[in-house]
Amino acid sequence: MPAPSVHLSLDAVIVAVTAEAPRVLTVRGDSGDDALPSGPLDLETHQTLERGVRDWVAQQTGLALGYVEQLYTFGDRFRDPRERAGGARVVSMTYLALVREQALPAELSAHWRDCYAFLPWEDWRGGRPALIARELAPRLHAWAGADARKHERVDLTFGLDTAPWDPERTLERYELLWEAGLVAEASRDRDQSAASAPGSGSALALDHRRILATALGRLRGKLKYRPVVFELLPPEFTLLQLQQVVEALSGNLLHKQNFRRLVESAGLVEGTGRLATGTGGRPAELFRFRREVFRERPDPGVYFPGAWWSR
């Protein structure tokens, strides 16, 4: 019996924050759906996996990546429909990249999309999304039926009843919705015609929405201990710009005075003595990231107790 074949794909979740919105870069997938930039590993030309993903992103989007880190490896059976048709099993090595949004070549099919168009239940900046109580919670509890453990899982995952909302459980929430058949990918993957829950977000090709949920959870976790947020900002920025980027990624609002006081006291930023122009209001001081903070403490993140509005 011949050995089963494996196809290694290199996928990229490329995130920017523009006009207070977290954005992800997509391309047109083979099925016509939005997809993450991806391509196969070329054993001859790609000296490393990271080099390969950078090459595919440049070809498909025209973007030269800066900050990149390995995200996760996805290899579930039948995650790619070509395997069901007798093709190779597709294993994806995924990478997370943080950039500042820029114009893309018109001749390519790449577009910037709002992350929350795909994961609308994750944006709590205006309070708990009405979608959760109106559409998702009733359907999830109906799916749980008489199973107490499933009901508990629903409540803990979505912060229902007395359970707190955990912003980092993005992947668990998407996977629960998929398992309950409430997102479009569930019926597509199971060859069923059941309708997804109203307002449950736009689908992505293959399991790319699952990959996006994984990336968002990783970013939210990193806010606590790594200054990755500064990769999304220009070299000089106002504290309001910094706050808006953190709010966009976390999906929650910050207490303005507490956040600013704690960011400055933690030594993450330093003033430049210059003022921002064209803000439409009182000129605000420009700041820059203090790289010296890496030598001063091991976890220079922007998550601090007391900086967040309680929900």
Short note summarizing the structure:
This is NrtR DNA-binding winged helix domain-containing protein. With 311 residues, the chain is an alpha+beta fold.
Task: Characterize the structure shown.
The chain is of the alpha+beta class and 311 residues long. The protein folds into 3 domains: 6-116, Nucleoside Triphosphate Pyrophosphohydrolase (Alpha-Beta Complex); 120-200, no CATH class; 223-296, Arc Repressor Mutant, subunit A, CATH 1.10.10.10. 33% of the residues lie in helices and 19% in strands. The protein contains 11 helices and 9 strands. The chain has helices at 49-61, 81-84, 115-118, 130-144, 148-158, 170-179, 184-189, 208-222, 239-250, 256-265, 293-296, and strands at residues 6-18, 21-28, 34-35, 38-40, 67-74, 89-98, 111-114, 269-275, 285-289. The strands form 2 sheets. Strands 1, 2, 3, 4, 5, 6 and 7 form a 7-stranded mixed sheet that branches. It has a two-stranded antiparallel ribbon with strand order 8-9. Helix 4 (130-144) runs antiparallel to helix 5 (148-158). The longest helix is centred in the middle third of the chain and has 15 residues, at 130-144. It is globular and about 65 Å long. The mean pLDDT is 89.
How do the strands and helices of this protein lay out in sequence?
Layout lengths: L5 E13 L2 E8 L5 E2 L2 E3 L8 H13 L5 E8 L6 H4 L4 E10 L12 E4 H4 L11 H15 L3 H11 L11 H10 L4 H6 L18 H15 L16 H12 L5 H10 L3 E7 L9 E5 L3 H4 L15
Parallel strand pairs: 1-6
Antiparallel strand pairs: 1-2, 1-4, 2-3, 2-7, 5-6, 8-9
Pfam family, one: WHD_NrtR
InterPro entries: NMN_biosyn, NUDIX_hydrolase-like_dom_sf, WH-like_DNA-bd_sf, WH_DNA-bd_sf, WHD_NrtR
Organism: Tahibacter harae
